[in-house]
Records
---
Amino acid sequence: MIQIKNLSKYYGKSKALDDLNITISKGEAAALWGSNGAGKTTLIRCLLGVIPFRGEITIDNKNLITDDKAIKRLIGFIPQEISLHDNLTVEETLNFYSQLKKTQVTDIGEWMVILDIKNFEKKLVKELSGGMKQKLALAIALLGHPPILLLDEPTANLDIKSRDDFLHLLTLLKKEGKTILSSSHRIEEVLSFADRVLVLDNGKLIADAPPMEIYKRFGKNGTLKIFINPSLFENALSLLTREGYQSYRNGKGILVKVDPDLKIEPIKILLKQGISIENFDYEVELF
Amino acid sequence: MNIDFKNINLIAQKEILSSFRNKWFLLYTIVFAALSLALSLIGLSGLETYGVSGFGRTTASLINMILLFVPLMGLTLGAMSIAYERERGTLLYILSQPVSYFEVVIGKFLGLALSILGSLILGFGLSGFVIAYKGGSADAAGYLYFIFLTFLLALSNLAAGMFISGYFKKYDTALGVSIFTWLFLVIFSDLGIIGTSFLVNLNINQVFILSLLNPLQVFKISAIYSLRDNLELLGPVGIYAVRSFGTGLQFLLIGILIIVPTGLIFFTNKLFKKRGAV
């Protein structure tokens, strides 16, 4: 379905993508994994044909350079930062993109109901919350039922509940047979929907394997982010340091370096000392 | 190239909708309408003394205001068009749909051009209504021609603004360069021509050609010529222009005001495609 041959991309003299060769079959869900600056977003932008590149990309046996409009009709896209026109309403936005995609008008109502945004149709985009914007972006991406979804860190700005809902929907879409390429740096997301993981590092493809294999090979370290009352920061930090954890304050939380299999331990330590935890998050680090 | 006119129409419509919800555009429209109305009332104040050529007098008093205001409007709105959307990420969204760079550029240009036309018609319309109401209805055809010329001037500046917007990635930079371009066209080009003609001893033909490089000068020459049927007001260069080109002068000037935006939009498209959506 998607064939990438000798794909390279330069920004000035710096190489963002380095001679990539990737094939993604129809109905396959692939995750792009890599640290910031690895080239995930650049690869997705190349596949969308919105930036110039070297090499060849064919989608559904059509060349992206010569047949870009036909290819773009096959793709639904969600960017990392949802940037829609603030001064259009939800309804106007959906109408605009539906007409650009040449999809049925009934499609708009269908997705508004499925994604629960019908009540917001007369609101301006600038009045929507982050989660609602994400739903609107998803509705736009799914207009016309495209067989391919390109998702650039789609859950980056979502809370845990919205993230779970999104991943559930993604799993359903995968079952429908959609071909999915999604970048993420959260291993639990990758494990939940991906058939294979493409690991990028400095623009190079350094691994291409099933998620569990990638997790075993690369998932050695991680960062636990613990949210507690700021007045307890010093106490918590000294406790964790005393127990041998590398920890430091970051914004409204405490970051603790910890092995994925032992991530519950720092939480247990704090709870045992009566420090109540408001929220927490864990991210596996690649390298 | 396979052009989809429905896409152009759609993007133009979105641009018009956005313009009417854009505070800058609304401010320009209100200020232009207020200034036009004020100048037409001033023009009409001498109606009883100087006769009934209300439209002609108003047109004459509007020329200087238009030379300052319309280029600023065209340049800044054009400069905001691509760079702002590129910086915000909305261009990435639009271009990831089945639409070409050319369709986006033309759609934006047409949408903004029609929005500006609406703004101009409101301003000129208010003035025209006041003039007609006060009985100064002579030279209405000349007034309509003047509106047409002003629209062409706006198109040249809008296209220049979009070219700047296509080149610069940062919105602030594009806006800054557009304001500098406005200053250059309004002030420095006049001084530049005068200075250059003194320094290198330009002949009258060369001075005239230099003037034609600035759409504001082209507009001014055309507007004055349409009002007076001669260009003595502009001195020897004006007399030379009328003698050299005769009745063809207006066609030459209008031709320039059509070719300039067409060329600039052509290059904007090339530049935009080369730079990409981000």
Note: DSSP finds ten helices and 14 strands in chain A.
---
Amino acid sequence: MSSDTVADRELRAKCEEFLFHTAELLDNRKLSEWHNLLTEDITYRVPIRTTRERANQAEFSDQSFHMKEDWGTLKVRTERMNNDFAWSEDPPSRTRRHVNNVRIIENDGAEVELKNNLLIFRQQGDETEPDILSMERQDTLRRTEEGFKLADRRVYLDHTIIPTNTLSIIL
Amino acid sequence: MSHQTDQSPSTAGTDPSRVQQVLGAMGETLEDGEVPIEILNNEDVYQEELKRIFGQVWVYIGHESEVPEPGDYRQRTIGEDPFIFVHGEDGDHYVLFNSCRHRGANVCRAEKGNTTHFRCPYHGWTYDNTGELTGVPQKAAGFDHLEADEYGLHEVPRVEAYNGLVFASMNADAPPLEEYLGGATWFLDMYFNLIDMEVIGDPHRWEVENDWKTPTENFSGDNYHIPMGHKSAIDAGVGSDTATGEKESELYGIADCDGHSFSFYQIESDEPTYWGHPPEVVEEFNHNDVTDNQHEVARKSGVTLGNIFPNLSFIFLGGRDDPEKESVGTFLLRKWEPRGPGKMEVVNWVLAPKDASKEYKERVYEVGMANFSPSGNFEVDDVGIWYGIDDAAGSVFAQKQNVRTLFTMGRGENPDATVAQDWVGPGTAYRNGGMTDENQLDFYRKWYKTMANEEVN
């Protein structure tokens, strides 16, 4: 691993600030505010994972996805989730996103590529057993006049069978 | 639960006589359109369902396009039981029990792949991809008495395909698949003879706290829930043209079709619909491989959906994932896998026309996923409106009061839903089919007959 300079630490702190802030927006169901922090050319993908033999590296599908989104489809989803008739989120699920292990992969000045781990705690109604979703995200943050925006997200789930009733939350 | 320690091992924790009581009560009210809610969450009923339904009838395994090459395999279940769906070296499709003949371990541990052989990790017994036993370590030293050809992997007694859809039945005496599908063949021929379809990629799989029969009864023809249950998706402008009201349609609810049920939204227009497929895709269809009647129904089809008993549903719709984008036709097959009383796993496949462009197939996938999948704009609200059915069904109150769900819509003096005399397909078609429960009730009639063993197939 390369030596961690002050500049590296500052960059990581700035990226973490963006990730923590967007996680808070989603936990607090401020979906249109979250959507405002996406670039208009965003690609957002959650590929399906299958159990494979160790020798086969292709656990994640390049053809099939739980979500395969662009700016427009994410707008549809976030607006729909705010609709008074969006039953899967009314009463809303209580989510808490735990973002950690932030690793900067590349910084070319315009964009920063990074990896982070995400654990989502989700409960709905009077459930006492939470649904736990675990994943790695590979994100590209773009510098804009308004600060960082999310330009690309790949979500690599630690699940083959999704262990929650619906993915009516954003990962 | 724990005080019942005197149960015999074969029925540990379950009580078949309780099932007879529930079926008895169901028989009394079924034709009045009332179904005991208890059957949606009852351990005894569930255990008997696994045997009497999933252990008897033809159950969907997968589509041939999921295992295109010899050696390709996918793990699949019948009820909760583990099987390998494999394209054998000899070109046939096999459904093999995933358990070594020696000591029972799984011989296949990946969800999918391609292999010439399955090798048990326990002692190394090896089977070829048709299930034949081909290797036993130190056979001469310890198993010289073993006739290898008698110890291949167990196969499901009956495996048959219809239009590329592979089904299996644990009942050696089951009628031929085509006979079991009955009237459903008319619809399957219309889809699969007209359009060469293939499964795209891997299925979605997710766990839902509902009994497998809840979505099954829904897909058997609950068109009544759409304005309320799916308002958020319709408002978002991502539904079909018929759901958004963009196009007027006539809805036919098809009942009396051998336990399988269908709904057809037909758009009367000079402009052909073909489930929202655009002209350049429609051009490639096999227009001469279906009957004139099938062709006419296909031409006018907006959304069509249904269920093949017991747990294979489908929806074919023209829709979009963003109101700014063009509509495409997307076909979804879904299997509601029993995973315990009041619990299921959903398996969802997206199918696209095989000969369409790569770009079009990607759009078909995206639109299918955006509407029907764990994240589907329509599907999430289906699951969202079913919350608590399992709790009510499993309640003491429901048992004590014999709480029943209602399938009596359209039984008044002046029902909107009337039998369409001009229907050209099989079964009995109800015009204004959203206003009848007969197609949904057929699912429970078939369930009841199969559970009561009045009909073994």
Note: DSSP finds 16 helices and 22 strands in chain B.
